[in-house]
């Protein structure tokens, strides 16, 4: 028997129909939490990691083609985009030419299937709240589903725990807020519990490529697939050089105790180690969340652990209702899928270009993606048209929510090809054909409109 809090949580999950594998996994982390586990990775326990670059790797065309024919694609698609004011799948956002993230992802995969005569299954890990809209949007693509395999499986949910006694939180006003996703580390639990991992293996696929649906740079590239196949690694993650915008984000390192590669998230970093976390010369690489794994190796690892991979725990402290600071503090038990790299002996990382890491987390990112910084080719792959990507900082009071953002760019994004940065302080609406050159800062004490075809340079 476990503690009262754990038994209550188990019963709550069983009543909600949560998969038994997910319940056992939650119980594993609950016990760690009870015993004071914080999931922290001290700086003293790790060393910096260097790695090879994809640009320096030779991959034969035949190796690449064979590898992509044995690969399945999974897109993490559980996010609602609530931080941007959305209440449906963020991947339904319009990106370019009237196409959403989902449209572009589907067309990227369909193009690659034709080019390489590859089955290349595309499967989405949805949440209960993104499933219906996502499947409706994909219905227009005949033949997208591969025989014998689903187009989706659902991520699990776990109860939020009250900080004071680790008992599942109750919120009759909005019962949905009593639950949270267990982080994208739930991928492996959900793959096993839904049987999708076994079905992929039975269908003869060897590798899985996983990425976020809001990262259109994460194409299942045959060259990367070929590198992974010829490496013989059980698990790998694509990495990029950290920039100033990544100072507070996670990074790769080597664990001194056993030499394994680890991925340390900011939530796993002690306050006393924050300076080391921000040191871009010491910790040079961050994760793209584009990862590859060998299906047999993953199956064996899960079987050996009775379905509980044992990823490092992330103890996330929140308010029960994130929008109401008066609600009780809760702990959300989470894991990161990239942290599985430390589970596998012989796991690898590889440096890739920033063109494979184009995530949209804010409307700042969305403006760049909708601008002329990127071209969308016939293969539906994003081609970066400029040498660099400008820094964008739009006033959160007027641009944070997608609806407000769209009202202020009614004719589309300005030209950013010659821009280094664009900082907007205040309520500014952009007319059609506006061009930004160099470093531009706009300060508007009252509502302002930039006239059509204006050229903004230096301080406006």
CATH class of the largest domain: Alpha Beta
Largest sheet: 7 strands, mixed
CATH fold assignment of the largest domain: Spore Coat Polysaccharide Biosynthesis Protein SpsA, Chain A
Ranges where pLDDT stays below 50 over 5 or more residues in a row are none
Termini separation (Å)? 67 Å
Strand order across the biggest sheet?
6-5-2-10-14-11-17
Which class do the helix and strand fractions yield?
A: alpha/beta
- CATH architecture annotation name of the largest domain: Alpha-Beta Complex
Helix percent reads 25-40%
Quickly describe the structure.
The protein has 460 residues and is an alpha/beta fold. Helices cover 26% and strands 27% of the residues. It has a seven-stranded mixed sheet, sandwiched between helices.
Describe this structure in words.
The structure is a single chain. By secondary structure, the protein is of the alpha/beta class. The chain folds into 2 domains: 4-356, Spore Coat Polysaccharide Biosynthesis Protein SpsA, Chain A, CATH 3.90.550.10; 363-459, Hexapeptide repeat proteins (UDP N-Acetylglucosamine Acyltransferase, domain 1), CATH 2.160.10. It is built from 13 helices and 23 strands. The protein has helices at residues 4-15, 20-34, 61-69, 101-116, 128-138, 186-193, 196-202, 222-231, 274-277, 295-304, 363-370, 396-399, 402-408, and strands at residues 46-48, 71-77, 94-96, 99-100, 122-126, 152-154, 158-159, 161-162, 179-180, 207-212, 235-241, 251-255, 261-264, 285-294, 314-319, 329-334, 348-351, 374-376, 382-384, 391-394, 415-430, 435-450, 455-459. The strands form 7 sheets. The protein has a 7-stranded mixed beta sheet with strand order 6-5-2-10-14-11-17, with helices on both faces. A 4-stranded parallel beta sheet has the order 20-21-22-23. The protein has a 3-stranded antiparallel beta sheet with strand order 1-12-13, with no helix packed on it. Strand 12 and strand 13 (261-264) form a beta hairpin. The longest helix is centred in the N-terminal third of the chain and has 16 residues, at 101-116. It is globular, with a radius of gyration of 23 Å. The mean pLDDT is 94.
């Amino acid at each position: 028997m476990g503690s009262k809090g754990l038994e209550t949580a188990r019963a709550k999950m069983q009543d909600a129909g949560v998969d038994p594998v997910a319940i056992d996994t939650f119980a594993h982390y609950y016990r760690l939490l009870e015993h004071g586990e914080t999931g922290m990775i001290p700086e003293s326990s790790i060393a910096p990691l260097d790695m090879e670059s994809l640009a320096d790797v030779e991959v034969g065309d035949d190796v690449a083609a064979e590898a992509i024919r044995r690969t399945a694609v999974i897109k993490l698609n559980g996010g609602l985009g609530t931080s941007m004011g959305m209440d449906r799948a963020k991947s339904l956002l319009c990106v370019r030419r009237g196409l959403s993230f989902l449209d572009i992802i589907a067309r990227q995969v369909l193009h690659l299937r034709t080019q390489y005569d590859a089955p290349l299954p595309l499967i989405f890990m949805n949440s209960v709240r993104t499933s219906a809209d996502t499947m409706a949007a994909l219905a227009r693509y005949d033949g997208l589903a591969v025989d014998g395999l689903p187009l989706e499986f659902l991520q699990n949910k776990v109860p939020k725990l009250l900080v004071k006694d680790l008992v599942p939180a109750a919120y009759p006003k909005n019962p949905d807020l009593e639950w949270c996703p267990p982080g994208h580390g739930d991928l492996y639990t959900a793959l096993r519990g839904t049987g999708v991992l076994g079905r992929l293996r039975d269908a003869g696929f060897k590798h899985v490529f996983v990425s976020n649906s809001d990262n259109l740079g994460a194409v299942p590239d045959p060259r990367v697939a070929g590198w992974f196949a010829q490496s013989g690694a059980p698990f790998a993650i694509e990495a990029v050089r950290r920039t100033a915008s990544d100072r507070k984000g996670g990074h790769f390192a080597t664990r001194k105790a056993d030499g394994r590669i680890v991925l340390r998230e900011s939530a796993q970093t002690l306050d006393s180690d924050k300076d080391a976390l921000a040191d871009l010369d010491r910790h040079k690489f961050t994760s793209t969340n584009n990862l590859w794994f060998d299906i047999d190796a993953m199956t064996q690892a899960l079987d050996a652990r009775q379905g509980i991979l044992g990823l490092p725990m992330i103890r996330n402290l929140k308010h029960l209702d994130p929008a109401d600071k008066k609600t009780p503090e809760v702990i959300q038990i989470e894991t990161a899928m990239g942290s599985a790299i430390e589970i596998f002996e012989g796991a690898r990382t590889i440096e890739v270009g920033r063109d494979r890491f184009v995530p949209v987390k804010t409307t700042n990112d969305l403006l760049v993606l909708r601008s002329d910084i990127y071209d969308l080719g016939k293969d539906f792959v994003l081609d970066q048209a400029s040498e660099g990507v400008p820094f964008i900082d739009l006033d959160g009071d007027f641009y944070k929510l997608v609806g407000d953002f769209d009202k202020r760019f009614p004719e589309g994004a300005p030209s950013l090809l010659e821009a280094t940065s664009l900082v907007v302080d205040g309520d500014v609406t952009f007319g059609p054909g506006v061009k930004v050159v160099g470093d531009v800062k706009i300060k508007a004490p009252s509502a302002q409109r930039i006239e059509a075809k204006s050229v903004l340079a230096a301080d406006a």
